[in-house]
């Protein structure tokens, strides 16, 4: 009782001290990011979007058509586990955008009447590679329509049906570029972030229809429950008068350890019976599988980011080649007077030999000219004699 009285006195003293202090300024209210359920909805059909030219149809690529919705499904498995980067205003609606650094990777807008429209972008590209509405998926290659996927029939359309939907693909292409520009140009104060709880409420809302499974994604099937054990009734006992158990057949009525054995129960086996896994073991296995799948998705996204960064990185300039080293100047050689005189004599002899060769050349040329003059004179004399001898 004494302890209770002391505690009550301490509490009263603390309350009076708190009342004597001036009231603290209340913190400013934190504005919660509004959910997208309170904003306007986007037109559900492509015909209700602003007009745009039809998308050009690319040559058939049947072998590569499936990769568009397969890659989009991988992005969904990665981004559906985390809330969007932010929601922004676009007219009367607020689409949600997922960023990878400063690059837009996915944009989602809600539609009138329920459902959503998804726009998927590769890293560093301003045009989508895939656009998906509640009924069809459109695969693009650099702005050209490659394939159209029918989500209800879970198969790609043929070439004629693909060309027939080029107009819708063109409007979706223009819409995706406008949404991406608006997402990047939205001011910081206009970006409303959604936390994990708000994103879960977005995903759990009532007007969101179930998205059909892709053909390459196996549908998880629950294994059938095991059949109930079969209970075999014991054979009826023979109560005829004079019938008694025979004690001379221990191998039939008794076990090997001497214990009596019922005739309706088979002998116990020494092999351990398999036991069904408990709920905790199954949960641990599911958690391990989910963790492995998440690590694989994160590794794939990291590889994509590195590849995109490598494509956007400017080419590296080659390092300038090393300049050849200038050879060192030769060291001057000091000669003795005898060596200097010998070198001068050798140079004088060389000059004399050159002059002698030049004199010989000039003499040979003069002799050649004299011989030529002699020949010319003899020829002229012969011609004159011939003219004189003529009658």
SSE blueprint and pairings:
Elements: H1 2-20, H2 66-79, E1 86-87, E2 96-100, E3 103-110, E4 116-120, E5 130-132, E6 136-141, E7 144-150, E8 155-156, H3 159-164, H4 166-185, H5 196-203, H6 250-253, H7 279-312, H8 337-389
Antiparallel strand pairs: 1-2, 2-3, 3-4, 4-5, 5-6, 6-7, 7-8
Give the gist of this structure.
The protein is of the alpha+beta class.
What does this structure look like?
With 391 residues, the chain is an alpha+beta fold. Among the domains are: 36-203, no CATH class; 346-391. It contains eight helices and eight strands. The termini are far apart.
Major sheet, described briefly?
8 strands, antiparallel
**Uncertain segments:** 1-8, 14-37, 209-223, 245-255
Which class best fits the helix and strand makeup?
alpha+beta
Mean pLDDT figure: 75
Helical content stands at 40-55%
Within the largest sheet, what's the order of strands? 1-2-3-4-5-6-7-8
Query: What separation lies between the terminal Cα atoms?
Result: 184 Å
Descriptive labels:
391 residues; alpha+beta; 8 helices; disordered N terminus
């Amino acid at each position: 009782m004494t302890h209770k009285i002391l505690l009550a006195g301490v509490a009263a003293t603390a309350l009076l001290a708190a009342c004597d202090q001036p009231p603290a300024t209340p913190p400013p209210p934190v504005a919660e990011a509004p959910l997208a359920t309170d904003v306007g909805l986007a037109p559900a059909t492509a015909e209700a979007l602003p007009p745009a030219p039809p998308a050009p149809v690319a040559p058939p690529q049947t072998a590569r058509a499936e990769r568009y919705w397969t890659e989009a499904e991988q992005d969904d498995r990665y981004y559906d586990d985390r809330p969007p980067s932010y929601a922004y205003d676009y007219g009367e609606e607020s689409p949600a955008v997922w960023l990878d650094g400063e690059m837009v990777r996915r944009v989602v807008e809600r539609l009138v009447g329920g459902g959503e429209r998804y726009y998927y972008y590769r890293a560093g590209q301003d045009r989508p590679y895939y656009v998906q509405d509640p009924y069809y998926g459109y695969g693009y290659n650099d702005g050209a329509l490659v394939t159209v996927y029918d989500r209800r029939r879970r198969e790609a359309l043929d070439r004629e049906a693909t060309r027939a939907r080029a107009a819708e693909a063109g409007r979706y292409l223009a819409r995706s570029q406008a949404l991406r520009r608006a997402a990047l140009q939205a001011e910081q104060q206009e970006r409303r972030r959604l936390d994990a709880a708000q994103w879960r409420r977005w995903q759990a809302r009532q007007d969101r229809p179930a998205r059909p499974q892709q053909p390459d994604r196996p549908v998880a099937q629950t294994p059938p429950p095991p059949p109930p054990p079969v209970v075999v009734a014991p054979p009826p006992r023979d109560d005829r008068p004079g019938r008694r158990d025979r004690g001379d057949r221990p191998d039939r009525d008794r076990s090997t350890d001497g214990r009596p054995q019922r005739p309706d129960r088979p002998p116990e086996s020494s092999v351990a019976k398999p036991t069904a896994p408990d709920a905790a073991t199954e949960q641990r296995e599911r958690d391990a599988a989910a963790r492995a799948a998440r690590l694989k998705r994160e590794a794939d996204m990291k590889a994509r980011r590195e590849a995109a960064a490598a494509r956007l990185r400017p080419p590296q300039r080659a390092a300038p080649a090393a300049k050849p080293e200038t050879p060192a100047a030769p060291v001057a050689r000091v000669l003795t007077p005898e060596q200097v005189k010998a070198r001068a004599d050798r140079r004088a002899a060389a000059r004399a030999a050159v002059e002698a060769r030049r004199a010989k050349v000039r003499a040979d040329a003069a002799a050649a000219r004299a011989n030529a003059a002699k020949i010319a004179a003899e020829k002229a004399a012969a011609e004159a004699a011939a003219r004189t001898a003529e009658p």
